[in-house]
Write a structure and sequence with these properties.
Blueprint (H helix, E strand, L loop, with lengths): L4 H9 L17 E7 L3 H14 L4 E4 L15 E2 L8 H13 L1 H5 L10 E5 L2 H16 L5 E3 L1 H7 L14 E5 L3 E2 L2 H14 L3 E3 L4 E7 L2 E7 L2 E10 L5 H6 L8 E10 L9 E4 L4 E5 L5 E11 L7 H14 L8 E11 L6 E4 L5 E5 L9 H14 L13 H4 L17
Parallel strand pairs: 1-2, 1-11, 2-8, 4-13, 11-18
Antiparallel strand pairs: 3-7, 4-6, 5-6, 9-10, 10-11, 12-15, 12-16, 13-14, 14-15, 17-18
Length: 417
């Protein structure tokens, strides 16, 4: 079934009785060529590109809950490619280009909205850093535009420009950045993978990884043993726990990142806005809610919920930047488990175990990376060579110290990234 305007019109006129399931619900086979552990955005996109780009068929995605029940549905949906350091910048540029063609590729409406992202700065030093970042982004072929205070006042009249503590000096705009509907991204990739023969096995928790003589043999699951020639770990904040099943200790801490949404409001915020003097970012959803987030809860945890002091901290940043937000009632909050690396950049690499591959450490960058992460991880698993856009995401950089990518300049502290 392909989606089209004619199909939607026909179903609307006939009671919507002709829609079928988006994907099958198969029983797991005894053996696959490739198993992907994790049915989130990165795992689903990996399976999709393995089937689409490399023609592989015997692939299974194992998800302990239902498809899209993890971090892919627990984020603030922001997409951007304004990273500064070599290694990161090429990767996120690749991801943004894939985003721009994703709906056509998947034949699925992921509600991709290139509304633009504006990063504010509040001092001469921050302005200099923004100019340097803009030049770097433009040199790699992406867009970046410096905005004056007068330009910002016309675009964002609701900000507090003249406060004594954090006066706004200007902003850095990337017009091609924006948002997408997180659930729809998961559903679109799941549907596309299923159409190409991938088995999406839900309610199938991996409880062990079988390794013999340094070679992966398959996995043990809550639904029995499944053999496989290759296994990919793509489980976000659970990466350390799953890797430990194969005897690996990862350089990752798991922290909770909370996000929030207000009641539905009339359109008032047309962009994604980032506060330069506090970790606060905000946009408005298509349903009208203001969606925003801030700093991590500064303790390691596997709980998909946060604490009240961080709620207050994020709300304070929002009120400092835009006092008008205080009139909105907060509807709900949620937490995602973030897999934080010491340099704030991800891992897409082979492990020391033959046939076992790792995709982890996405920190704050997981959602915006979904297309390129799957594309690059599929390339690695299919060819055993790193994709050109992900050559810097080596696992051994944390052991050797060579090639570290400290994007935020905060040092080797997981929770500061």
């Amino acid at each position: 079934m392909r989606f089209s305007a004619l199909k939607i019109l026909t179903e609307g006129l006939t009671g919507n009785r002709g829609w079928g399931a988006h994907w099958r619900d198969p029983e797991p086979a005894e053996e696959y060529d490739i198993i992907i552990i994790g049915g989130g955005g990165h795992g689903l996109s990996t399976a999709y590109y393995l089937a689409k780009e490399y023609g592989l068929k015997k692939i299974a995605v194992l998800e302990k809950g239902h498809i899209g029940s993890g971090n892919i549905g627990r984020n603030t949906t922001i997409i951007r490619a304004n990273y500064f350091l070599p290694g990161n910048s090429e990767f996120y540029s690749h991801s943004l280009k894939l985003w721009e063609g994703l709906e056509t590729d998947l034949n699925y409406n992921v509600m991709h909205s290139q509304r633009g992202q504006i990063g504010l700065f509040h001092s001469d030093g921050q302005r200099d850093a923004a100019i340097r970042r803009a030049n770097s982004v433009r040199n790699q072929g992406d867009d970046a535009e410096l905005l004056s205070v007068d330009q910002l006042r016309k675009m964002l009249p609701y900000l507090d420009y003249d406060q004594g503590r954090f006066p706004i000096y200007g902003g850095l705009l990337q017009r091609r950045a924006g948002t997408a509907r997180h659930d729809a991204v998961a559903w679109g990739y799941a549907r596309g993978a299923d159409q190409r023969g991938v088995d999406l096995i839900q309610n199938c928790e991996v409880i062990g990884i079988d390794v013999r003589g340094g070679v992966v043999q398959g996995v043990q699951t809550s639904r029995g043993a499944i053999r496989a020639k290759k296994v990919g770990i793509v489980v976000a904040g659970r990466s350390s726990q799953v890797a430990a099943m194969a005897g690996m200790r990862l350089p990752i801490e798991s922290h909770v990142l909370q996000a929030f949404v207000t009641e539905g409001l009339k359109p008032c915020i047309n962009h994604v806005i980032s506060f330069g003097m506090g970790h606060f970012y905000i946009s408005q959803s298509d349903k009208g809610g203001l969606v925003f987030g801030g700093d991590l809860d500064m303790y390691a945890s596997y709980a998909a919920r946060g604490n009240l002091p961080m709620v207050e901290h994020v709300a304070e940043a929002g009120m400092t930047l835009m006092p008008m937000i205080g009139k909105a009632r907060m509807l709900r909050s949620w937490g995602g488990i973030m897999d934080m690396t010491p340099d704030g950049s991800p891992i897409i690499d082979k492990t020391h175990i033959e046939g076992l591959y790792l995709n982890a450490g996405w920190c704050y960058g997981g959602f915006k990376a979904v297309p390129a992460s799957g594309n690059c991880f599929a390339h690695l698993m299919a060819t055993d060579t790193a994709h050109a856009s992900a050559q810097g995401f080596r696992l051994d950089r944390f052991r050797t110290g060579r090639g570290l990518m400290d994007e935020e300049g905060t040092g080797a502290q997981h929770n500061l990234h």
